[in-house]
Amino acid sequence: MFFSKKCNFAFLIFITMCGIVAYVGHQEAYPILIEGLKRLEYRGYDSAGVALLNKADQLNVYKAKGKVSDLEAKVADKDISGHIGIAHTRWATHGEPNETNAHPHLSKSGNIALIHNGIIENYLSLRKELEKRGFQFKSSTDTEVLTNLIEDVQQSEHVDLFEAVRIALNHVIGAYAIAIVEKGHPDQLIAARKGSPMVIGIGDGEYFIASDATPIVGRTQKVVYIEDEQVVRIKLGEELHIKTIQDVEAIPYVQELKMNLDSIEKAGFDHFMMKEIYEQPTIVRDTMRGRLHPEANTVRLGGIIQYEKQLLYADNIVFVACGTSWHASLVGSYMIEKLAKIRVKVEYASEFRYRDPVVTPHDVVIAVSQSGETADTLAAINLAKEKGAIVLGICNVIGSSISRATDAGIYTHAGPEIGVASTKAFTSQVTVMAMLALRLAELKGTMKDEERLEFIKELDSIPEKIQWTLDHSGHVKDIAAKYKDVRNMLYLGRLQNYPVALEGALKLKEISYIHAEGYPAAEMKHGPIALIDKDMPVVFIATNHSTYEKVISNIQEVKARDGKIIAIVSQKDVLARKMADYVIEIPETECLYSPLLATVPLQILAYYIAVMRGCNVDQPRNLAKSVTVE
Ligand code: F6R
Predict the structure, then answer these.
(1) Taking Cα atoms as reference points, which of 117, 142, 147 lies closest to residue 209?
(2) Half-sphere exposure of 109 toward its Cβ, with a 13 Å CA cutoff?
(3) Cα(469)–Cα(570) distance, integer angstroms
């Protein structure tokens, strides 16, 4: 665990991407809830809803299909008063996205309203039992079943809501983060979680609940991350009361929230994605802060210090990750093998978890994830643990499920990444990989001191070089204008620039919906070359490193077939720039670090192409920020 608190993920299942916000306190709840839902919009959703308990003890529930703004329009002439309420954005899992299936769900008596993030796997059998007992259901959701299960327990066991939730959750198989408001209790919220994140903000005479800290930022800095299988009573004027569902009292662990409001707003950029691209010089510096020490020719990674020996003597280091985090891991594998001479494997977490991989207690598995909530990566962690491997994490979100499920880890310190397409998370992950490789090389003695010092100094200069790259990327917009209407694009690079090709292609396809493929440049002749014609732009990452001449030959092959060439080149490049239709320069650097620079203009290229095509850059279709479903 990154934290010292215990957490069991043996029961982790597939959870949804919904967003939860709840409030109780001295202020009107509605504006706080709506603002909170808007801050959670990046997670992806298809309907939204809110429940408010007013002074007359009426529990008003409003729902809308579509965006939070549709919900706002819907409640324009409704009673939205109340100092307590719960609100939700839903990503459909059971039943289509419509108002009936949207949360909050009311119990049969109408006394309790509940919002839920997760999936109740045994909801059908629970529903049948409840139907036998006279309950009827309006929606197709597992959430309405859970709501009525709690009410059934409350009525038949004659217990209060807190106890009813605790007992009911013992009958539930699945994942949940829930928040409940009850008539007659205008000062109390009940919440619980298992396998789905939840955080409570403690303000002055007020409490907040949310799926992650973004709705809470700027409202309070005191937070408690709820652990799996815990139920919480949040009552005004009282301390948080936490119990496990097994009826064991737990002490709330209050932490300071480090995010600030600026960090989740757009800071003058049109989109979060561009803001995050421009944050990269700062982020990379933050990632290295206190860890990279050029003056002492060393790297210190405090989070994994007690596992350094195991890393050094590991039979294999195995990275498990998805998407962009997988690309960063691939860069990491090149770095660690080259500098520290330790065997590294890079696995898609989704494949690893099902293919019965050979992992032993002599391996160290490193899970890499921006969100720390990716279901496949969490499942891969569980599998690796079952096989006895030490599991470390490289993760951005503090207190996330992955940071808790791993034995130890390194935070990337990239700050909240709101744009769905990962940008600064990638550069921060690669920076961590570079430091890890250098640290292992130092311990293993695989590099001479002077050579290591050169690498450390060069890494230290990367933030300025990223800034230079950003400052000289104005013409990327013109390249985007030229190619915004193409139907396909190919990205080619070799060695450490092969993952850059993959990442460039992923960025383009996910936000502009143009089909794009990344390949190792030499693989072109084994198939993709058949695609080349005058309508096919090919992006070459042609920095002046060991395979430069070979990449030049590939450029010639494309040129000979009338393909259009966009070349990312080093400042001193002579050859590639002569052949390319468009050139993007990056500063000279050590070859292993070129992904930290070369990826940046590719992010910008994808961004402008997507904007020019009228795409929703920050929230691309069909995608969500945290892929917490399998
Ligand atoms: C691409 C992207 C995804 C994520 C992937 C893993 O821009 O964002 O490919 O990289 O879903 O997510 P994390 O890193 O949160 O585990």
Answers:
(1) 117
(2) 11
(3) 11
In the set 18, 322, 395, 591, the catalytic residue is 18
pLDDT digits (tens, 9 = 90+) for 296-341: 999 999 999 999 999 999 999 999 999 999 999 999 999 999 999 9
| CA–CA distance, 341 with 545 (Å, rounded to integer) | 20
How close is the Cα of 502 to the center of ligand 1, in Å? 13
Nearest-Å Rg of the Cα atoms of the chain is: 26
CA distance linking residue 152 with residue 104, whole number of Å: 18
Cβ–ligand 1 contact at 369 (below 6 Å): yes
- What's the N-to-C CA distance of the chain in angstroms? 23
Active-site choice (65, 509, 564, 625): 625
What DSSP line would sit under 563-583, residue for residue?
A: -EEEEEEETT--HHHHH-SEE
Q: Among 298, 231, 278, 626, which residue's Cα sits nearest to residue 457? A: 298
Residues 6 or more apart whose Cβ sits within 8 Å of residue 356:
none
Regions of the chain where pLDDT drops below 50: 3-16
Cα 66 to Cα 46, 177, 551, distances in angstroms: 5, 22, 47
DSSP state for residue 247 in the 8-state scheme: S
Residue 398 identity (one-letter amino acid): I
CA of 396 to the centre of ligand 1 (A): 11
pLDDT confidence of residue 365:
98
CA distance 71 to 47: 8
Whether 360 and 334 have beta carbons less than 8 Å apart is answered as no
* CB-ligand 1 contact for 422 (6 Å cutoff): yes
